[in-house]
Specification:
This protein is mostly helical and 146 residues long. It contains six helices and no strands.
Length: 146
């Protein structure tokens, strides 16, 4: 592998890690907000959180632009570590606005990790919940058709 290619892979991996860190920071803040400001009522909490953050209810985490940039990234799945796969899956499942991307990600996960992997099962159920309101593996706490 050429040095330039190694540098590009490291930059991409670092960018993926940073996107996940931003994603999880916002979700952790939101969980705490729902518990303390909405008495655990997730629907009420989502509306309040959107108001506080001055965001649309369908983008309460302010992540759409970050996730769009993620969907445009190229990856060499042959070089992915378990951590890379977890990060890829995590961000892919949050791309509910782009089910075609999620389906491509699911195929990549199936090819490299297999149908028995937790990444496959979680993303499969996420897609199925959003499209049909059902899930096969029971991985999603909330399963509503969007």
């Amino acid at each position: 592998m050429l040095l330039e290619e190694i540098v590009r892979l490291e930059e991409r991996e670092g960018r993926l890690v940073n996107l996940v860190a931003q994603d999880q920071k916002e979700r952790t803040e939101y969980q705490e907000f729902v518990q303390t400001k909405a008495n655990g009522d997730w629907d009420k909490g989502a509306k309040l959180y959107a108001e506080v953050k001055k965001r649309k209810v369908d983008d309460i985490f302010g992540e759409r632009e970050r996730l769009i940039s993620f969907t445009k990234m190229d990856f060499n799945f042959e070089t992915f570590s378990d951590s890379d796969w977890n990060n890829y899956w995590l961000l892919s499942q949050h791309c509910d606005f782009d089910v075609l991307y999620q389906r491509r990600a699911l195929k990549n996960i199936e090819k490299y990790k297999g149908r028995d992997s937790s990444e496959y099962k979680y993303l499969y159920d996420r897609i199925s919940c959003n499209l049909y309101g059902t899930q096969k593996y029971g991985t999603q706490n909330i399963c509503n058709r969007v």
